[in-house]
Design brief:
The chain is mostly beta strands and 107 residues long. The chain contains one helix and nine strands. It has a single domain, classed as OB fold (Dihydrolipoamide Acetyltransferase, E2P), CATH 2.40.50. The strands form three sheets. Strands 3-2-1-4-7 form a five-stranded antiparallel sheet, with no helix packed on it. Strands 5-6 form a two-stranded antiparallel ribbon. A two-stranded antiparallel ribbon has the order 8-9.
Length: 107
């Protein structure tokens, strides 16, 4: 369980995926360039088995914006994309309506 105060520390935001790159020799992860309105961040995510590049570029998705950076496959990942496994064991991202501006906080 987390307290309400702890939950308030999470910064969930809408990010626009501007670019998706394959990482050589990695079959499960992509390098994403994500626009949060006032800042561009790099996100390394294990979504490659579930999405093609053209299904991601130009899409708005929910992210944990204030996660401590982590080194993954030689890159610094600066946020975390949000999604969930469905009943068919496929990872589904939390896409956000285009009318919501990138950088918008989720609450």
């Amino acid at each position: 369980m987390v307290t309400f105060a702890e939950w308030q520390n999470l910064d969930l935001r809408v990010g626009l995926i501007e670019k998706v790159e394959e990482i050589p020799l990695k079959d499960k992860i992509y390098k994403l360039t994500v626009n949060f309105g006032t800042e561009i961040k790099t996100v390394i995510s294990g979504i490659k088995p579930y999405y093609q590049i053209n299904e991601l570029e130009g899409k708005k998705v929910a992210f944990v914006y204030n996660l401590d950076p982590a080194k993954i496959a030689g890159f610094e990942s600066q946020a975390m994309i949000l999604g969930a496994m469905n009943q068919e064991d496929k990872y589904k991202l939390i896409f956000v309506d285009d009318s919501i501006k990138e950088g918008t906080k989720l609450n």
